[in-house]
């Protein structure tokens, strides 16, 4: 980037970086709400909001061009978020009299903070002077630390409402977030092991290396490796649970808890909770894209390699060179595209899956995802160990012994997977109770004797 | 040391973070509502993490957030919310000798600590951790070389805790 930017005081640079990251999120949240409502209604065979932003042109006015007079221009309800926003701003802000006031007012802010702070180490382009906000060598740990703060907003909102349903929602949220955080950190730890660094930029750089070490024209995105794929699935499920989205939206289950932790909130304070949820969706999708899907790269193809390789015809090398430039200069666009895809996936999940029962939620987190992520972690460690031993002993005895050990670990993984699938597919063991009918005549006898 | 030397941006940052942390620490004991006390403790821990960041020890700061703010205090709050649902009862007795004795003991402790700490810190102006002292590499390396046995023993202790809690909580195993 330009030198003048690097000559600024570090505090100004940091401010610019923060604004470049946060302002787009703030602006995109309303659009996201529109997209969710439209996509959801399309998936559920409804129409959804399509009326706001329909322009009916005047039939008589001279200011309207003749071909438009009396016609309607439909914009797919694109201005619905503005209507929603106006409605939320001007609704009466009711504060119930029995709430714990200080905490009641603080909770929405506390809920919003981690959602935005989460992206502090997230790189959205290969431009080190602009992004990430801080390229510290604890990048992924920072994400875990901040996401663990997300529980405070929900819990405090639930507590301060002085309402049994709110409190139940808050308690459910804290139990849910704590349970799924473990599996999430385990799945990220696999990638940290494979990368050998906690830096987010380093993770993307590692994914740009050649595919499985054999095909230099392709990139080795973590999702294409076996352990990376398992970790990705675990992370994705945990991500949905961490953002309190359906099918994990038990803290705000309407049919059980009215609206859960935000039952007592109205107007803008309620909107702030929603904004936090959508911002968290956005940033978590960014983390998923960075850690597993190659970050800012558009396709898992090494355009740089193709452009400079001698074996590629010059015409295709030219095209590859063009793509390499596009990949570099339009990086935020590709990153945003991946985020849009994952957010659509969130909405797809919401449209498809019914809400989990509470015991199902807990058993999925503790009995399936956590063991799976742990076994995956051990497998990655064994993989690295074998790789190291083989490269040190040049494929001699030690390497083959380690190879056998790897097979044992892989067998354990397959066995545990089989156990999980078997357990999930078998009929639930219901408790049986026998009721014996008592003859009233003999009962009378017993009573009289 | 003259005042103009003290008025650096770093000093300002330190004073804001440290001041909030100290105020929150006072709040922990000053509030008689358990949830607010716990919240003050959260703020204090969080600000301590920022203090570590400003000293250049990112790893330490982030572990502070992960372990204390993100895990332990959430459980504290969870338990307090589960237990303390009734009206807040204020316990206050007039002419309580405990107040006097406690104040005196606290003052003594402050003098004792202050006497030890102030002298070496008086000459410090902008403390900074040496490059790479708390980096993940160094922490990991020392955990798995010098402190391998304590580390493994601690992990076994934690495992015992988990097994024990399951043993206590479950009727049928």
Strand element count of chain A: 4
Class from secondary-structure proportions of chain B: mainly alpha
Strand order of the largest sheet of chain A: 1-2
Number of helices of chain A: 16
Number of strands of chain B: 0
Fraction of residues in H or I helices of chain B: over 70%
Instruction: Provide the helix percentage of chain A.
Output: 55-70%
Series of H and E elements of chain A? HHEEHHHHHEEHHHHHHHHH
Measured by DSSP, the beta-strand proportion of chain B falls in: under 5%
Alpha-carbon distance between the two ends of chain A = 99 Å
Quaternary state, please? heterodimer
Mean pLDDT of chain A: 81
Distance between the termini of chain B: 67 Å
Q: Main sheet of chain B, how many strands, which sense, barrel?
A: none
What characteristic shape of chain A results from the CA principal axes?
Answer: globular
Would you mind describing this structure in some detail?
The complex is a heterodimer of chains A (449) and B (173). Chain A has helices spanning 3-7, 10-43, 80-90, 101-117, 139-160, 164-195, 200-207, 226-242, 254-257, 267-292, 303-308, 314-329, 331-352, 358-393, 397-425, 440-448, and strands at residues 55-56, 72-73, 210-211, 215-219. Chain A has 449 residues and is mainly α. Chain A starts with a helix and ends with a helix. With 173 residues, chain B is mainly α. Chain B is 74% helix and 0% strand. The longest helix of chain B has 26 residues, at 58-83. Chain A binds chain B through residues 100, 102-103, 136-138, 141-142, 144-146, 148-149, 151-152, 155-156, 158-159, 167, 170-171, 174-175, 178, 181, 198, and chain B through 35-36, 39, 42, 58-59, 62-63, 65-66, 69-71, 74-75, 77-78, 81-82, 85, 135-136.
